[in-house]
Design goal:
This protein is mostly helical and 222 residues long. It folds into two domains: 123 residues, no CATH class; 93 residues. It has 14 helices and no strands. The longest helix has 15 residues. The radius of gyration is 24 Å and the shape is elongated. The protein starts with a helix and ends in a 13-residue tail after the last helix.
Amino acid sequence: MIWLFLIEREQYHLISKYWDDFSRFSSSANIAERKLLLDYAQRTDKLELASDLHYSIARDFASLEDGLQWLILQSAVEADSTDIWLKTMLLSNSFKTVVDSLVFAFYATANQDQDLLARIEALPEYNDVIESSAKSLLDEISSQASSYEAIELIEYFYSSYPASKWHQAAFYLHLNHLANLKDYPEMQKVIYANQNRSAAHAYIAALFWMSPQCPQGSMCGS
């Protein structure tokens, strides 16, 4: 596509010359064309255009990511507070899943409503936004040199993301740090509490039951 070619080569003067044609992508039924116009707006620091595109993509294609980006940009562009409120209400009803609607409502709330957070945490599964947040915390846990600090973060992970697909990874790290500390009674408690969550949890539990780190006769394997 000629527009992509021009954007990648930063031939913005040519895009300006044919702006009427290119700007029609703002109402395109093809999300890829709107995203292309958004890419141009971001590369050229056209914040108002980027804001409008994030909003329309969120509204018309139920894109939570674009809805959240639109919220972020409201602090950087001049916008009427009433208009922001009306658009926020409209977007709240534009998403296709309960979890997307709850996540958007949570970030749209100035004080990030704790009741909404509790409802999100109670969901049986999460969306990509929540899982990305969970993965970021897991990465922080993985970088911890101190087992005590890692375990504290893992327990926070359990309470904050109980339905995360990364739970099994947190479970593995938890048992590994407890093994390093030789805290076998606590290992046993953690295994019993989590081993039946999934086949992966059961496999991880079995690995630690049979681990050389778990001495015969200890509470770890009893």
